[in-house]
Amino acid sequence: MKKTLISVAVLGAMSSAAFAQSNVTIYGIVDAGIVSERGGKLGNVTKLSSGVANASRIGFRGTEDLGGGLSAIFTLETGYKVDDGTLDNTNNTLFNRQAFVGLRSNTAGTLTVGRQYTPWYNALAQVGDPFAAGLAGSAKNLFPANGINLRNSNAVVYQTPLFNGFSGEVFYGFGEQSDSSAGRQVSAALSYTNGPLNARLAYNNRNNDTATGIAPVVERGIGHNSLLAVNYDFNVAKAFFMYNQNKGLNSVAYPNGTAYTTAAIAASQDSRDGLVGVQIPVAGKTGKVIVSYIYADDREFANRDAKQWALGYTHDISKRTTAYVSYARIDNRNGASYTVGGNTEVGTGDTAFNVGVRHSF
């Protein structure tokens, strides 16, 4: 009996030692709100939506200490809809948001492979947009932050360590076609952080060619996006600024191109976007007033410009739970087809109001 107890104790100690260097975390967001939309061909739409401020999700994040400052890491993350419990994508992909594995070094940086965000989108959501790409005021309503500009599969991403406030990120997405350049995507960002200043310069390059291996390569050109995103914290308020240039096919795509017409409106292949905004802490910094102004400047003959004004308020009920309310209106010019959406849904019209709650775990 004593030997059995000793053996169990030894195995338990060995098991603890083996797993002490590993860590797996289950995390997620549950976000739902009431949304009222106006101005589209569907008329007035009031609905319960999921992922208004942040997309509802559940994920698994893991690290293993390999020694010498090196760790193995992975993330598997799927999105779902709180309103009906289904996955938030049409093709029923399990881990549609993120799915990657890699290595992180304290001195050499981080290398990951799999389905990941582009550095261009990270600059928009993490640095430039006071609404953090959510609520009615989301910069995604006018900036081209959808499709593979947002995230892409088959990607290799390298992030440098932080050097005197500077860091970099490089993204390469394989097109996986018979021609190595067809369908590929390259994105990169350079970041600088110093006290209250946070600035990021990002670039996205999307090859639209297709190659089946049977027919000749169909050359459709390159889509380019170049973004400067800056925020500065004055303590009494945090100011935001973004400027973005879009050039080429698929550099811009309307989230809902048939919101106002039966036939889809062609997106511009030469345009500029700009944003100015502010976050103002209130109620002992548990609350936050958010304001932004965004414009889309079409440089083509059609001149389909648009402007968006947005106002929002978030209130931290606890460290994990936040209530929110927001309103935004878009002024479309010359047949432009921009819509007021949120973080997850693209919206049906040019005006939207939403109120809801977000809980993270």
Mind explaining what this structure looks like?
- It contains two helices and 17 strands.
- It is mostly beta strands.
- The chain has one domain: Porin (Beta Barrel), CATH 2.40.160.
- Strands 1-3-4-5-6-7-8-9-10-11-12-13-14-15-16-17 form a 16-stranded antiparallel barrel.
- The longest helix is centred in the N-terminal third of the chain and has 18 residues.
- The N terminus is likely disordered.
- Homotrimer.
- The side-by-side strand order for the widest beta sheet comes to 1-3-4-5-6-7-8-9-10-11-12-13-14-15-16-17
- The low-confidence parts are 1-20
Compute the number of strand runs.
17
Oligomer: single chain
Features:
361 residues, Porin, 16-stranded antiparallel β-barrel, 2 helices, 17 strands, globular, disordered N terminus
In short:
This protein is mainly β. The protein has two helices and 17 strands.
List the topology elements.
Elements: H1 2-19, E1 22-40, E2 43-50, E3 57-67, E4 70-79, E5 98-105, E6 109-117, H2 119-128, E7 151-159, E8 166-173, E9 185-194, E10 197-207, E11 222-233, E12 238-247, E13 270-282, E14 287-298, E15 306-316, E16 321-332, E17 351-360
Antiparallel strand pairs: 1-2, 1-3, 1-17, 3-4, 4-5, 5-6, 6-7, 7-8, 8-9, 9-10, 10-11, 11-12, 12-13, 13-14, 14-15, 15-16, 16-17
Domain Porin: 8-334
Protein name: Putative porin
Subcellular location: Cell outer membrane
